[in-house]
Design goal:
heterotrimer, A mainly alpha, B mainly alpha, C alpha+beta, A: MetI-like fold, about 70% helix, disordered N terminus, B: mainly alpha, MetI-like fold, 2 domains, about 75% helix, SBP_5 (chain C), peptide transmembrane transporter activity (chain C), signal (chain C), Peptide/Ni-bd (chain C)
């Protein structure tokens, strides 16, 4: 869903100097820093939610339902069951980020491994892996996610499974393309000729070169994944109630839009802000790591 | 050119086979009994067994697949469990409606995206660039299902300007290109267009920006070519990549409209799919996903071939 | 760019013009909750909504429900049969006199042979007209029927398997399709679906699967008082509650079924009318009575029933509910005079639980099956959470097992003893309780213990069974009603269910809709409606 062409990834010789250069470039980029802090804040508040003195995100009161933003005691109001919105949104961030980011991490490892193996081994191994990946590529990502989740039914684990499956193929492709490129470089040939085992060559020479482009590409997938995960819950085939999750909250608050539109817009706004920051962050990291810039 | 086309088609066949296997297996992993949705809640075990036999659900998997594929070859995708109507008719009718929506969204998104992207690329690192970048990042970051709801509230419920649902005053079957029908298209198409506007703008910006700073362009200027001529030159060079991105986007629009169709009650493939999921209507689920995926495969093929036609260097890779 | 702006301005102007444009006089457009147009060939699917919009509109049954009054529970009235009686000596033999001069929409006459043909369509899988789809919907509704024959054109005989006085209620389910029309459509039900023919007050004019169905009046309907006054009635499936609300508020439909409670203020604020009425529906927990179930103790059952503040729940439902006083709605003709008063009395509940050995500090633990959605389930999650809170306050700790609606139906069919329910002692299942069988017998009869029937909790009690038998063998309608009342009193006095609430079938209507009388029934009469 993103515009980044996987083959357009920088192939660079990684080293300490390179990484400190990336760090220095990142620090000079205020927008990226802001986004980084927003994401960090979201992650920290999600982790430390139980110690923030918030209300119970599960317990509500029917009398106090759909209170507007700014109600004393409920700074962001209450939801359709009278549960504190602030608590729901922060606890919701926990689950939303977990389901939005975990599949990319899993797919990063699985797809990265598959791609490196395919790219390094070549031959029939490459054909087998890449042709299988091609089949999955035949499905638009949203369709594939909805099809698998729809078939498996709602649930956190099912969502993780379906989203991971969706993001393995693109990461495999990028890893394969980059690995093939690196493998063709002279010094790898030299290393192989010197009798180093395949594993050593991969570990020492390939991974170092391949990791950063795959990583950059993976970060660009996080916002897509998060929107998609929330979309599954919104459709009713993701997280199950009463768990707080932004997509699901957006769904259950839909009919409140006539009573209290601002309140029901909050979960959507959170998804928007988070994915905006993830996108900007990914852009920032990409340009910081891109030597051509 | 023809041999390239032929090779691409042959490469496509195993993918199509794989797609059919996935579609078939996908519904086999589904828990629950597909018949529950259609039987009255107090139907007896005998009545359920009878229904199962009628739908062929009592046979082993490979045989079910062989029967399914064999029927597919005759254009028969089985009958919907929930409605008893032939799946093929339902799916093609719905895909038609989805295509209508996807193309409309593309017609809105591509010109706007290209225009914005070109603007940003041309005026790189100016305030124009920053505004366009902000718009395009916002576009790809917004959950469009939420945007759809907000638009309905504003334009249908509060202002009463545009209808909130359906594909025309008389349903989709008597679609025509008049305003009475097209106004039903406006909100869903605009909602659906937001993400591709962002993506196309970003792509075109990168392309235009890159090309304009490259040596050969500078050389063209040096040769005394006018601004317009240089731009035309650059556009031709960017066309191949832009085309591939837009081709893929069209496929994504078709698949990605599921959530939007649910919000707007648009009688397309996504709406059909979500019905199939919630009614556990296996044949319908299979058929819809298969048709959408095969459409996407065909779209990829067309994009590849068109790209090769514009920029012959691509054939080699 | 200039063109674009101009074009856009033109679009906006045109849009505002069209949105307010008038619709043809006398067309009523209804947004249904079903996701598809119900089966059109006769016996409908899509549950109560199917019968309401595609059943009793296009078709008739031999015996029908009286839908003319909003004030009293509806009773059976003659439909295509004008009178019926059971044989004085042989209580399994029934004779039905059929209405004279009734014709199907295709013009063919309705006779006793058509009834036989229609029953074969559902019951005889060797008959040419057997339709598995209609059979799946209709067969289980007439378990009593053993055989049937046409004595003459207007006399029908039905033999039941055993004496069963509930036969008239069963036959109220069975709708009569036209044989001549089926033959004209190459004997294909698929083709009949596109142009069906019944004897009902409405004809199906246009049918676009999943999108809309248009019904027009049958001017030649046999009951002149029920010839529709509208020019047209349009049915539109709108399963998503907010899409339904938006469609009504933006003027695309004139009537929606089941508006979401939170959308109601926006509707009433804009002049829309909310119509509702009691009807035979209940929202309960069906309790397991297997050995070891805590619900076997009547003190626990009564305590749970006393622990729920039903009026408090009303806020959640926008007031659109009738608090349960028993298993049947308080207005039911079969409610009777139970001695156990279902009310909110937490002190009494705590006392009863203390007697049974439980308290807030030492709570009784129960497990309940619930589903996040489902036909007739109202707002299952918030309502169940409310119950969970209420029960916790008196000393009953509830653990939920949340499953998909379709899976829930399976678990309900399987019964409390099935391993798949994982020891859950309660199931939140709402019931259609319109007649003696669906209302009372099927839930607690010994011969219907799941999975052979729908007695989920494996309850079996000789006294109750005797009452059920008495219902089936009491052929005088008034005497039968008395037995029904006695049976329901036992339901309540023994607190056999956790009785929570009844739905009131809310629907939101445009102020232009006039003349609608909401009967206390799952079905409704649309003939009296006009559009202003």
């Amino acid at each position: 869903m993103t515009a980044i062409d996987p083959l357009d990834m920088p192939v660079t010789e990684a080293g300490k100097g390179y990484w400190s250069g990336v760090g220095a470039r990142l620090i000079r980029d205020p927008l990226t820093l802001i986004c980084m802090s927003v994401i960090a804040l979201l992650i920290l508040s999600a982790i430390f939610a139980p110690w923030l003195g918030l209300g119970d995100p599960y317990k509500g009161s029917m009398i106090a339902r759909l209170k507007p933003i700014g109600t004393p005691g409920h700074i962001l109001g209450t939801d359709e069951q009278g549960r504190d919105m602030l608590a729901r949104l922060i606890y919701g961030g926990r689950l939303t980020l977990f389901i939005g980011l975990t599949p990319v991490v899993l797919a990063f490892f699985i797809g990265g491994t598959l791609g490196i193996v395919a790219g390094y081994a070549g031959g029939w191994v490459n054909t087998l892996i890449m042709r299988t990946v091609d089949v999955f590529f035949a499905f638009p990502s949203v369709l594939l996610a909805i099809a698998i989740s729809g078939a498996l039914g709602a649930g956190i684990v099912n969502s993780l499974v379906s989203l991971t499956i969706v993001f393995i193929p693109p990461l495999t492709r990028v890893a394969e393309a980059v690995t093939s490129g690196v493998r063709a470089l002279d010094y790898i040939d030299a290393a192989r000729a010197s009798g180093a085992s395949a594993l050593t060559v991969i570990r020492v020479h390939v991974i170092g070169n391949v990791l950063s482009p795959i990583f950059v590409y993976a970060t660009s997938l996080t916002s897509v994944c998060m929107i998609l995960a929330a979309g599954l819950s919104f459709l009713g085939i993701g997280v199950r109630p009463p768990e707080p999750e932004w997509g699901l909250m957006l769904n259950t608050l839909r009919s409140a839009i006539y009573v209290n539109p601002w309140l029901s817009a909050l979960p959507g706004l959170m998804i928007f802000i988070t994915s905006l920051c993830l996108n900007l962050l990914s852009d920032g990291v990409r340009s910081a790591m891109n030597v051509r810039d | 050119m023809f041999s390239y086309f032929l090779r691409r088609v042959i490469l496509m066949l195993p993918v199509a086979f794989g797609v059919s296997v996935i579609c078939f297996l996908l519904v086999q992993i589904a828990p629950g009994d597909p018949l529950t949705a259609i039987m009255p809640v107090d139907a007896t075990a005998d009545e359920q067994a009878a229904m199962r036999a009628i739908y062929g659900l009592d046979k082993p998997l490979p045989i079910q697949y062989a029967i399914w594929i064999g029927n597919l070859a005759h254009g028969d995708m089985g009958k919907s469990i929930a409605t008893g109507r032939p799946v093929a008719g339902e799916v093609f009718g719905a895909v038609n409606n989805s295509l209508l929506l996807a193309f409309s969204a593309a017609v809105i998104a591509f010109p706007i995206g290209i225009f914005l992207g070109f603007l940003a690329g041309y005026f790189r690192d100016t305030w124009i660039d920053r505004v366009v970048t902000a718009i395009s990042i916002a576009g790809v970051s917004v959950p469009n299902y939420w945007l759809g709801i907000v638009l309905v509230i504003i334009f249908s419920v509060n202002l009463g300007w545009l209808p909130s649902m359906g594909a025309g005053p008389g349903g989709s079957q008597d679609w025509s290109w008049d305003w009475l029908h097209m106004r039903h298209l406006v909100l869903p198409a605009v909602t659906l267009a937001v993400v591709p506007i962002g993506i196309v703008a970003r792509t075109v910006r990168a392309l235009a920006g890159d090309l304009l700073t490259q040596d050969f362009v500078l050389a063209l200027y040096a040769k005394g070519m006018s601004r317009g001529d240089v731009l035309r030159h650059v556009a031709r060079n960017a066309a191949a990549t832009a085309l591939s991105v837009m081709g893929l986007q069209l496929g994504y629009l078709l698949g990605g409209s599921i959530l939007i169709e649910t919000v707007f009650n648009w009688p397309g493939s996504g709406f059909l799919l979500s019905n199939a999921i919630f009614q556990r209507d296996l044949p319908l689920l299979q058929g819809t996903i298969l048709v959408l995926a095969l459409f996407f495969v065909a779209m990829n093929l067309i994009v590849d071939v068109a790209q090769a036609a514009i920029d012959p260097r691509i054939k080699r890779s | 760019m200039k063109h674009l702006t101009k074009g856009f301005a033109a679009l906006v102007v045109a849009a505002s013009l069209c949105a307010t444009g008038a619709v043809a006089q006398g067309t009523l457009r209804i947004g249904m909750t079903a996701s598809d147009i119900p089966l059109t060939t006769g016996q409908t699917d899509q549950g109560g909504e199917g019968m309401r919009f595609m059943g009793y509109t296009v078709y008739d049954s031999l015996i029908e429900w009286d839908l003319t009054s909003a004030d009293k529970p509806s009773v059976l009235i003659p439909g295509l049969a004008t009178e019926w009686a059971v044989d004085a000596d042989d209580k399994t033999k029934w004779t039905f006199k059929l209405r004279d001069g009734v014709t199907f929409h295709d013009g063919s006459p309705f006779t006793a042979a058509d009834v036989v043909w229609n029953l074969d369509k559902l019951l005889d899988d060797t008959s040419e007209q057997y339709d598995s789809r209609q059979s799946a919907q209709g067969k289980s509704r007439i378990p009593a029927v053993a055989s049937y024959s046409a004595i003459d054109d207007h006399t029908l005989e039905i033999i039941t398997k055993e004496p069963d006085a509930t036969l008239p209620y069963q036959l109220a389910w069975i709708l009569m399709s036209s044989k001549a029309n089926w033959e004209a459509n190459d004997k294909s039900w698929e083709k009949v679906a596109m142009s069906p023919s019944g004897t009902g007050p409405w004809k199906l004019d246009t049918f676009v699967p999943r999108e809309r169905a248009e019904l027009t009046p049958n001017e030649a309907y046999w009951d002149e008082t029920r010839v529709p006054q509208l020019d047209k009635m349009v049915l539109i499936p709108l399963p998503e509650p907010n899409a339904r609300a938006a469609a009504l508020l933006s003027g695309q439909v004139d009537w929606i079924e089941a508006p979401a409670p939170d959308t109601i203020p926006a509707m009433t604020g804009n002049g829309f009318v909310i119509s509702s009425n009691a009807y035979p529906h209940n929202w309960t927990w069906h309790l397991s009575r297997l050995e070891g179930s805590p619900w076997n103790d009547i003190r626990v059952r009564k305590a749970a029933n006393l622990a729920i503040d039903r009026d408090g729940m009303s806020a959640l439902l926008g007031g659109l509910m009738v608090p349960a006083k028993g298993f049947l709605p308080p207005s039911s003709q079969w409610f009777g005079k139970p001695t156990f008063d279902v009310r909110y009395d937490p002190e009494e509940a705590k006392k009863l639980l203390a007697e049974a050995g439980y308290s807030v500090d030492n709570p009784l633990k129960v497990k309940a099956l619930i589903s996040p959605s489902g036909s007739g389930q109202m707002l299952p999650l918030p309502m169940n959470e409310y119950i969970q809170q209420s029960l916790a306050e008196v000393g009953i700790e509830v653990e939920f097992m949340v499953v998909e609606w379709n899976q829930m139906i399976n678990l309900w069919r399987a019964g409390a003893a099935d391993p798949a329910v994982e020891g859950a002692e309660s199931i939140n299942f709402t019931y259609f309780i319109q007649d003696p069988f669906t209302g009372l017998i099927r839930h607690l009869s010994c011969d219907l213990i799941a999975p052979n029937g729908t007695n989920w909790g494996h309850y079996c009690d000789p006294e109750m069974q005797a009452l059920f038998d008495k219902i089936k063998t009491t052929f005088d309608p008034e005497a039968q009603d008395a037995v029904m009342r006695e049976t329901h009193e036992k339901f309540v006095n023994d607190a056999l269910f956790l009785m929570v609430t009844h739905d009131v079938a809310p629907r939101a209507l445009s102020p232009k809709v006039k003349g609608f009388v909401q009967a206390q029934n799952w079905y409704q009469n649309f003939s009296s409606i006009t559009m202003e």
